Amino acid sequence: MMTTKPVLLEVSDLRTRFHTPEGTIFAVNGISFRLYEGETVAIVGESGCGKSVSMMSLLKLIPVPPGEIYSGNVKYRGKDILQKPEEEMEQIRGREIGMVFQDPMTSLNPVLTIGRQLTEPLRTHLGMERDMANRRAIELLQMVGISDPERHLQDYPHQFSGGMRQRVMIAMALACAPSLLIADEPTTALDVTIQAQIVELITKMRDMLKMAIIWITHDLGVVAGMADRVIVMYAGYIVEEAAVDDLYDNPSHPYTIALLEALPRVDRRRDSRLKSIAGSPPNLLVEPHGCPFAPRCEFVIERCRVENPALENIAQGHSITCWVDVKTGKPR
Amino acid sequence: MNMIMESTSPNQLVALNMEGLDTPPLTLSQLAWRRFRRHRMAMFGAIVLALLFLYSFGGSLVLSESYANHTDTSLRIMSPSAEHLFGTDSVGRDILARTIYGGQISLLIGLTAVVIETFMGILIGALAGYYGGWIDSLLMRITEAMLNIPEIFLLIVMAKFFGGKIPEIEFIGRTFSGSVIVIVVIIGITSWMYLARIVRAQFLSLKENEFVLAAHATGTSNVQIIFLHILPNSMAPIVVSATLGVANAILAEAYISFLGLGVQPPTATWGNMLDGATNYLESAPWLWFFPGLLILLTVLSINFLGDGLRDALDPRSRAI
User: Fold this and answer.
1) Which of A95, A143, A299, B55 meets the CB 3.0–4.6 Å disulfide criterion with A324?
2) Which residues of B touch A111 (CB under 8 A)?
3) In this model, does residue B4 exceed pLDDT 50?
């Protein structure tokens, strides 16, 4: 059903590396996925698995050097945006693709008024005059649920609470009605009640503006509520990709299974213990060899340690990278 | 007793805060102004400086420039009297009038040289700090090379080289000899290095902030990020450095004018008035005392002002 919509974004074999004095960090190691218009995809994985770096690579926000987009291409509406010069990227960022960051406390410029920061994308991308941009900024603040917006236009970020700042960040990202919003853990730095409000706000905006969302998170609870599809990343690889219900009902990669078992659930016995994943994430300074999850995997077989499996379809819209069928514990 | 005190005071605090809610919180500049007002030395500096400006620019309404440049050899080296309050110099000119017009030049040189210095310092520091890499290396090597040459030597060589090559100009109803412009430009281009380093250091740390990434993500161009996003965040050290730069520029002008390479007579500056006084250090102390005192007061009050601004503009300062 999803496939009837046109493809908005197609990423293929994206690899991003950082050249540091300690050696090369293999941050993103060849990820490929598609995003259809109006679709919400969640990217989950633990810290340092390459979620943010891959999203920043899409927008060419990686500092070069030390970063390097080693290979791959990113087609936005059929055009490869990685090849575009910086000036054209500036037209895409904020206009076509908006981005919301993790920490609203540091994402706003402390010495500029909210109004100044909010009208900037309107004036650069849409060429609005000051008055018109101000009026639009007031509408935007109202849209994201900030009361008395006229007064707040002259305020500085330090006069706002964390939740209000994140609302302002969302207003800024949505100022030019982008077709794609990349939300990089937008709720991580907020407390739980504010988290729920922000999720609700972004969902409302999505339905209103008919935009696609890539939601980066490590909170599987948030994912279940709003995403259409989930991509699970580990050590710079996509390890599983599935429709959201399919992933929860039928997790097929050992890492996804382990993640879900580490999650508290209401339908589980109260005295049962949450499982943790043994070992620690791989050292990204070493060029990956074999399956990156093999050292921590309970289904590991000999082949896992020498050969890294490619992403393979196991059912309609459900793919994994694993040599083992977790239901039988035998090689597939 | 103590118990009661402890139990009531938080309530009183809450009550106070509740009442305070109607007044809007102070903006950054209001806070800075408040800290500045409470800095005694800075207020002293600001007031003295204001009086000095009043003296130089208001004084010209009372005494004319032709009077300041009028020579009368019958009145050579007269000690201070009712007619000539500060006495007269070696060609019979009134020293009071000359300190007024000399003050205009000295203060204007200080301010305009700092405009050039600040412009160059910000531009070079910002480009080096923001872009890094080879741009940074190149610009910082140039900066270090400039720093390695003693400033006074650079000033003298350039003053000698450019002296007399610039025509006169008209400004605020006065004619300035070309030597004034030469001095302004050479002080400007020999003093930007420290500011450039300060700005570079600011940019190096500020560009790592998430708000810079967020600005990039909304499609803001590099030029806009440098000048509209990062620069306003580093204004405090720039303002302080520029303020202190005014004092240094006035001193630099005094050096070279004292050496006879600066602004040429009859145009008076505090510096070249000192030059004219060298032969009379003991016999006619009023020749150097008044211009010297004015230089001292200006430089001192600007330095106090700079110190006060440094404290007031420091955003990390918790004092209110």
Assistant:
1) A299
2) 28, 232-233, 235
3) no
pTM of structure: 0.79
How much is the pLDDT for B14? 45
Residues of A in contact with B213 (CB under 8 A): 61, 101, 107
Size of interface A-B (CB pairs under 8 A): 78
Contact A14, A54 (CB under 8 A): yes
| pLDDT (tens digit per residue) in A13-65 | 888 888 888 888 888 888 888 888 888 899 988 887 888 888 888 888 888 77
Token look-up 């698995």 returns: A49
Residues 6+ away with beta carbon under 8 Å from A82: A60, A69, A72, A73, A74
Angle CA(A257)–CA(A260)–CA(A263) in degrees, nearest 5?
150
Give B73-133 as a DSSP string: GGGTTPPP-SSSTT-B-TTS-BHHHHHHHHHHHHHHHHHHHHHHHHHHHHHHHHHHHHH-H
Chain B residues 135-194 within an 8 A CB cutoff of chain A? none
Of the candidates B70, B105, B65, the residue with the CA atom closest to the CA atom of residue B91? B70
Per-residue pLDDT at B3 exceeds 50: no
Among B183, B176, B187, residue whose Cα is nearest residue B249: B187
For A8, list phi and psi in degrees, rounded to 5: -95, -45
Q: Using CA atoms, how far apart are residues A169 and A189, in angstroms rounded to an integer?
A: 13
Handedness of CA A52, A58, A62, A68 (dihedral sign): positive
Assign residue B246 a region: left if phi > 0, alpha if psi is -120 to 50, beta otherwise?
alpha
